[in-house]
Amino acid sequence: MSIVVRPATVFDDVATLVGPKKPTSNVCFCLSYRIGNKENVSLRGQARADRVRELCHQDPPPGVIAYLEDEPVGWAALHPRRDTSFARNRLIPHVDDLDVWSLWCFRVRPGFRKQGVSHALIDGAVAYARERGAPAIEGYPVDNAGEKVNLTMAYVGTRSLFEGAGFTKAADTGSVLDGFPRVLMRLDLR
């Protein structure tokens, strides 16, 4: 069985992977870095789902999805940095003025973990960004030095995941997640 990664244009698949368990919730759907904080906090329930549905129809969509035999099994948030909160984030530095794309969230469904889905997602995100003309792609994973990362906080990925895909450390950040420093990892696509 092979994993195929496609742009996240199907709302129901996005909802399966990152939709909140509680329909009235004001969390997840992977919006916290994608839209402004004020809008993110205000969206609840159906309004939150509608906003994600709208993003799925935009170009580019809000990320990529890994499929195993047409079943959605993994998610990665991906978008030009200029249109995310990373454009204004004081803890995540700007390395240069390139119009880079950010890759900031991974989610693999239970039952499909430890099968290479995260690796397929990062490879698929890189391929999609390259296809769309991105000059570089960067992520902001934890530098956990091989220590176990709480699954709830593992959504940013690990330095080793990014290194395995050819990314190199471009900068330290001021961000810490679950006690681990986050680093800025970058892959030049030019």
Automatic annotation (TrEMBL):
Record-annotated N-acetyltransferase domain positions: 3-190
Name by which UniProt lists this protein: GNAT family N-acetyltransferase
Gene3D superfamilies membership: 3.40.630.30
InterPro entries: Acyl_CoA_acyltransferase (IPR016181), GNAT_dom (IPR000182)
Pfam families registered for this protein in UniProt: Acetyltransf_1
